[in-house]
Specification:
Chain lengths: 139, 79
């Protein structure tokens, strides 16, 4: 079974997120382990990563629209999106609880900020992975 | 993922409609070709609305196009 436009779009987002945000966390991790604790120091890196992410995702969608046949989302696409979103939301909820716990124990803001950012990243990755799974196996 | 309990005769009905393609059917019922493929393969149960549209396109009652669980065996035994 060949993949639909929507599924290809999910794959583009999946690898785009891994490449860009994975790079961000790699660099940020090295900075934190190097002793950088000021949050403002990470802002330029975050801005560059966000711009790169937008360029890659938008570029990927444009290339797909040129090469393939663009299709409007249908009911199966929407059901898969809802289920994937529902299944992945616990990642964000768990990390938010972790962030609150960090605040209680007065962790450095740089740790809490990155924990929350990482949870958003992992939650989005989990959502995309669930979408791919449902596209492949059925829903 | 367990396959759906809803079974269908879409492949056979397409054959009797001059081998209508999945894409043609998809365009007429307003879904993607992959969704038609998933319905035929039993990987997705369509909404009632899409099921009715499919039955109407083939000019058959809904229960002729779709069967549920044990009913499917009874219907296929009659055909």
């Amino acid at each position: 079974m060949s993949s639909s436009y929507a599924e290809k779009s999910v794959w583009v987002q999946f690898f785009g997120l891994i490449a860009i945000l994975g790079s961000y966390f790699l660099v940020a991790g090295m900075m934190i382990s190097g002793g950088v604790t000021s949050l403002i120091t990470f802002v330029p890196l975050f801005i560059v990563s966000t711009i790169a992410l937008v360029i890659i995702l938008a570029g990927g969608q444009i290339i797909m629209a040129i090469v393939g046949r663009s299709e409007a989302p249908d009911e199966r696409y929407r059901l898969i999106s809802w289920r994937a979103h529902s299944n992945s939301s616990w990642v964000l909820a768990a990390a938010t609880s972790g962030g609150i716990t960090g605040l209680v124990f007065s962790f450095e803001p740089v740790w809490i900020a990155h924990l929350l950012l990482l949870s958003m990243f992992l939650s989005e990755l989990a959502k995309l992975a669930f979408q791919i799974f449902y596209y492949r196996t059925g829903v | 993922m367990a396959p759906t309990q809803v079974r269908n005769r879409i492949r056979e009905l397409r054959f009797h409609q001059n081998e209508m393609t999945q894409q043609e059917l998809a365009d007429r019922i307003g879904v993607t070709r992959q969704t038609v493929n998933a319905i035929e393969a039993g990987k997705y149960s369509p909404s009632l609305e899409v099921a009715f549209r499919i039955a109407r396109i083939f000019g058959v009652p809904l229960e002729d196009a779709f069967q549920y669980g044990a009913d499917a065996d009874a219907v296929s035994g009659l055909l």
